[in-house]
């Protein structure tokens, strides 16, 4: 546009010079009647000069001007002007005409400026003055720059051309932004301020959003350093509904970086050592900038030893040497290593170290099945949970050790080729089962700790590595224990007696009731057969009832032995007399009956009644026999009838 304006100015000056030369020539040249002999150049001069004379005559005589119109076409043909020359003349004339109109945007050239004003030339007959405030966004403005302006008025009240740069930017900005997106153009913008998630950028007078992730290819830790700076951007997204614009500076350098990546990756080789800069640190590894392409050092490749977090080894922006482990041409992934630059610690392990030696180390990892102990940087051994204690209880490693504990252990296995080592702690202490008969002899009494329950007994621990079982039948002499939880609780202490030792299987048979004398020896003399004792029903079920007897012993009564004399049923907590109908010392069993108590009493009463009646009958018979002195036939009949009646009455009673 600038070049076009300059060409217009030059052409205007040429035409003006030709007009002046033509007038001078007409005034000094001799008269020549032979007009047909004129050359093309002379005709051109005459074409330009003659209208001047005509204009002067017309200006002197207005009437003649109204009556006569000059015919340029006839004049040119009469003078012999060629069509080519005519087109050149018309072109020179056309460019002198101004095409600038009001209310439109045009380009202008800065021809002068100071602190308050900027003078702009748009190729019009006069220049315009624009306030410097409209160029505040562009502090780099200088003379000769092309700027866009809006023609507010060709002539104001003072006859001056009025232009506005601010309005021109406002009108053209949205079109320019859309055009920049369509053509993928690089535009320049001014970063105004920070905002949530990024920056606000002035682009063509529009506030665009620059996301933080689009500022650079590497993470930005300080956004404020970009405020107040000019940067180049690409428009990446436009929301026409809300008129939002998103720009990116990262997009400009990604293409260049992509080419650099291809070049760098094409030169990579496995095992190659490169220098890089720590770009980012995550929980799983470290990203390294290799000069245009990124690589990842996985946390397991940072050190031969255990690493909790990568920041224990490296820092941001730190320059380190790394070795290329692997790379993918298609996905542009590069796997790097740091520990591979140093010898493996197993290679430096002392050759004198052997199985059976004691070593010291620190617990670095705990699992349910064991603990990993680091005896040297990068050299670890596993202590299985079964090698932590002589105890055979199923326990986890957390019950014995914690991360960071310093421990001493014995080497159980050592494989230098596979780089594996197993350790043990319990081997440093004597196995208590080696002298179990001396320490825990038969019949000896000890205090144990309840570890676990089963339906058939209680597992207890007398000492570390020495466990035993108390069978449910050995818990109490008198109480019927259905489950060990009724008698004791896990974690409680209980007194025991050693009943049996199985050294081969590492088992002890223990008893608790054996701490006291067997009360059944005494019960045998108290609860004899047919003896009656008061008992309390403590439990009822289909097969009978459990009855609490004196001295803390319990008996059992079947349903048919629980019938009351009045025919009603017994209830829990009823106190009734019970007769012992069975006693077994070996089985520790007492069988009782309540119905036998009242049945035996009733049977005894009936027996006494019968005996009394028989005695009375015999006495009566004797009296009758003594009183008869003379017997007749009639008397004998009466006696026979009396005897028969007495027998019937006796039978009826029975």
Sum this structure up briefly.
The protein has 654 residues and is an alpha+beta fold.
Descriptive overview:
With 654 residues, the protein is α+β, with helices and mostly antiparallel strands. It has eight domains: 2-94, no CATH class; 105-172, Nucleic acid-binding proteins (OB fold (Dihydrolipoamide Acetyltransferase, E2P)); 184-253, OB fold (Dihydrolipoamide Acetyltransferase, E2P) (Beta Barrel); 268-341, OB fold (Dihydrolipoamide Acetyltransferase, E2P) (Beta Barrel), CATH 2.40.50.140; 345-428, OB fold (Dihydrolipoamide Acetyltransferase, E2P) (Beta Barrel), CATH 2.40.50; 432-515, Beta Barrel (OB fold (Dihydrolipoamide Acetyltransferase, E2P)), CATH 2.40.50.140; 520-593, OB fold (Dihydrolipoamide Acetyltransferase, E2P), CATH 2.40.50.140; 600-653, no CATH class. Helix content is 27%, strand content 32%. The strands form six sheets. The chain has a five-stranded antiparallel β-sheet. A five-stranded antiparallel β-sheet has the order 8-7-6-9-10. It has a five-stranded mixed beta barrel with strand order 11-12-13-15-14. Helix 1 (2-28) packs across helix 2. 17% of the residues are buried. Mean pLDDT is 76; it is low at 1-5, 22-68 and 629-633.
Search tags:
30 strands, 654 residues, five-stranded antiparallel beta sheet, single chain, alpha+beta, disordered N terminus, 8 domains, OB fold (Dihydrolipoamide Acetyltransferase, E2P)
